[in-house]
Amino acid sequence: MTTQQATPAPVTAPGATPRLRMRPGRHIDGWDPEDTRQWSLIGRAVATTNLRWSVFAEFLGFVVWQLWSVVAVQLPAAGFDLSSAQVFWLISVPSLVGATLRIPYTFMVARYGGRNWTTVSALLLLLPACALAVCVTNPATPFPVLLGAAALAGFGGGNFASSMANITYFFPAREKGWALGLNAAGGNLGAAVAQLAVPVVVSAGAAVALGLPLAGLVWVPLILLAAWGAWRYMHNLTDARGDVAGALATLREPHLWVIAVLYVGTFGSFIGFSAVFPKLIADVFPQFSAIAVGGAALSLAFLGPLVGSVARPYGGHLADRLGGARVTVAALGGMAALSLTVVLTLPLTNFWVFLGLFLALFAASGLGNGATYRMIPAVFAVRGHTGDGVEPRRKAAAALGLVSAVGAYGGFVIPQVLNVSNEVTGSYDTAFHGFVAVYVTLMALAWVCYGRRGSRFAEAGV
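The structure corresponding to this sequence follows.
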């Protein structure tokens, strides 16, 4: 069903302004969150309900997106004949597919409606969850089949773009930052929960001969609940319109690509290190890969994405006070220093130093995520009209989805760079030296473009 389908005569919502109308199929006409009366009477309640179910669906999207980061590390011990490079591919291909899907997902809400697309995108998560459960039951499963199942997990990565596009329509400008920050943080937490819950569930399930398949099956009831909740409680806004012209104009904007590259450094590092952290711990400190807690196994890898997720809203808050460019520069500088320190301290073979440094690295990436994303509307507002007939607000709205797509490719690049480093040199040192060089370069790029004293971006507090 699309938002354009004919329906019975509209009915005015009780107590709302006359312009706001609810129609069968949970369609809403005349949605205007900037109308303070409409917002106070019914708008806030409707928007909050949609936000809650959006967060839940996006959270499960991140869970599914990160399942193979945990499962792939356990496959060799389960009898699968896989090389280290093949494990890295299983870890990284969901990010490659997810990043690519974020581009079309950005426009799906305007085409099909937020309620409709959230329901569909949630149900699509059943494919990777069930495919994983089927593939890991047999150690003879060919690697291309495993890789195909891992690629399906990219559906979870695409959810972020459509979820953020949907929520931005529901909230007024004065509350949009809070709503989008909460939506993003709720989704990012899915990476941490996947890495916390899956080892526990798998080890507990091994006692009843289920084991690895539970890594996918355990999420099926929650996915069905998210799809049901979206269909039952969310809404389609008929005023939500896709802006293909705005997106095309944004693609010609140089600052889109500058911010996108910066976002590869911040969010790309967050999702890339989230995916590869269990593998790094298993390779460098195998004795800490799983810690026995009662009858279950616990991996401390979940702490990384947890810290990064919690830090993200604070990055946005600091950017509001200090400017996104300043916070981004500081975050990238911290990431460079921490990456170098990881290399220098590896000879100590101290897991707790390694874990502490990585948690700090995750925190810095989380702060950078929030700060860089906050820069998008500010940069386009300063740029103003550039002669292409497209308003800055339209460019900024399109850039939110496009930047998130480009940034997510970091989740593919980081595991692959680590894999090449290990294959060629026998260690991860070269990869981390490369990360240091990239972070320093991005730090300089952010400062030159947006942070230099006297530039119009710095004067505007970008």
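The mean pLDDT is 87.
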